[in-house]
Task: structure prediction
Amino acid sequence: MGLFDEVIRKNMSSGRLGRMILGAVLRRWWMVVLLAASLIPLAFPGITLMTNGLLQQLLWLAGLTFFILLVISVCRSLSNIFNLTRNENGITWCQILILTAIGVWIIGAILIFNAQAGNVSTIVFGIAGSILAWIFQDKIKGAAAFIHLRLNHLLNIGDWIRVPKYNVDGEVTRVTLTTVTVYNWDTTTSTIPISTLQADHFINLQKMSDGKTYGRRMLRTFRLNTGSFRPVTAAEIDRLKQYLPESDLQVGVLNAHLYRLYIYHWLMAHPHISQRPRLIVSWQDQTENGLTLQIDAFIIDSDWSTFEWQQSQIIEHIIESMAWFGLRLYLRQADPDKKEEVR
Result:
């Protein structure tokens, strides 16, 4: 690594905005040279060539173009650093500055060529603007979506998001004016247009993952065989006292009713279940495949692995405790007339 490259590296990694900008400018030193080459002749109006008005306009346009390209390049370099350090404000302002720079170039070009109503230059810029708007319509939509999502804090680096339409489920690693890069939990990487996050449905699970909500939702259903539903007997009442208070136990009460009460009270007392925003144990619609018991609860442990572990233990207990009340899960009967296909 040469001395010049070392100077650039130290400035870029300094953490100070001024030095980082200087380092990014030095990385594009050739743009600075081209910018100076286009503007220096304009500082000497006595040069013969400068009497040509068209040449002056072209030089001004070249200077403006190199300056805008330098600004965009610097902003992109800083955005890469801000993405790594999760500097959300830095990312936002860099991307907005890129969008502003493009607008400045268009306005500057019109002013340089003195575009007025009816002039040929106005018509040319009008046609060119229409063509560019058609070509870059996706980028324009992306810019609008970026500003909306970032200024409303709907999307940040490190957020866990799901985009069902694109089968995206993972952590946001990069956000630009036009795209969002996500590292999926299956170790793949997805890059999607940022405009889709505004136009289509996406889910941000970061607050839940950080424990800033009541927990992570557990919504599970269990289909029970209604053939096992029956009133409990006096003998069963004595045995069920270890699971329910006596006030809930009466001879002739349906075992399915007592089981639902037991599961509700058991979940209420569970140390890993939150009673807010809701805890519901309910019967759903009767089907030809049995009656469905639905559990709608929130597990306090929102970390993925811990949540799955707690959820699995709860499901195992729900299935195990069915036998205590004489209940069974529904099992589809095999069709004796249908022969199994041999492959």
The domain at 216-325 is CATH 3.30.70 (Alpha-Beta Plaits). The chain has a mean pLDDT of 82. The chain is about 50% helix and 15% strand.
